[in-house]
Structure of Histidine kinase:
Amino acid sequence: MNPATETSLEHAERVQIKDLVRHHVHDLRNCINCANMEASLLGDSVTDPDMLESLASIRQQMMDMDKLASSFAKNFAHYPDPEDPTD
Amino acid sequence: MNPATETSLEHAERVQIKDLVRHHVHDLRNCINCANMEASLLGDSVTDPDMLESLASIRQQMMDMDKLASSFAKNFAHYPDPEDPTD
C-alpha cells in the first residue's frame, strides 16, 4: 500500500480491521489453550493406544489452528495500529 | 461505506480481505470438525466422569471457536465478493 494513496477513511478502516483481527486471534488462542489443557489432563489418565492416538490428533488440530491464526494475522501485520496516528 | 467514496484500490483490497477471511474460517472449521470427530470417538470409550467432563470441555471450546469464526466473518459480510464486479 502506497501511503500517498491512503485516505483517512482507508486509514480508519484498516485500524478497525487490525483491531478485529487481533481480538479474533486472541479469543481463538484462549479456546485453543483451554482445549489443550483439557487434552493434557485427559492424557494423564489414558493408557489405551487408540485413545492416546485420538488425543494426539486433537492436540495436532489445536497446533494447526494456532498456526492458522498466526498466518492469518500476518496478512494484516502492516496495517496501522490504533495507537499509532502516524501510520 | 458510501460507494461514492470507494476507489478501485479500496474495492480490490476489500475483495482480497473477504477472500482471506473466507479461507481462514474454512480452514478453522476443518480443524474444529476433525477435533470434534476425535472427541466423539473418545467419548464412545470413556466412562470415567472426570474424563467425560474434560471431553465435554474440549467440545465446548470447539463450539466456542466455531461461534468466534462466524462472528468474525460477519464483520466482513458486506465486503464485495471476488465474483461480483458490481459491488
In short: Chain B has a mean pLDDT of 89. Residues 12-71 of chain B form one domain.
